[in-house]
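Appendix C: a fully annotated inverse folding record. The material below is reproduced so that readers can follow the format used throughout the book. The structure is listed first as tokens, followed by the designed sequence.
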């Protein structure tokens, strides 16, 4: 690559397996908390 610019796109993601090692309700509570924080971060931008 002789001085050629490369465009990189990063797409963060997650995968939630409900009831994998915690009851569904606990995973849901974690997901709701995560979404609350994420929406707050997006509102700041």
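Designed amino acids, in order:
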């Amino acid at each position: 690559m002789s001085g050629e610019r490369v465009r990189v796109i990063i797409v963060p993601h997650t995968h939630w397996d409900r009831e994998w090692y915690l009851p569904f309700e606990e995973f849901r509570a974690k997901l709701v908390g995560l979404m609350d924080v994420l929406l707050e971060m997006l509102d700041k931008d």
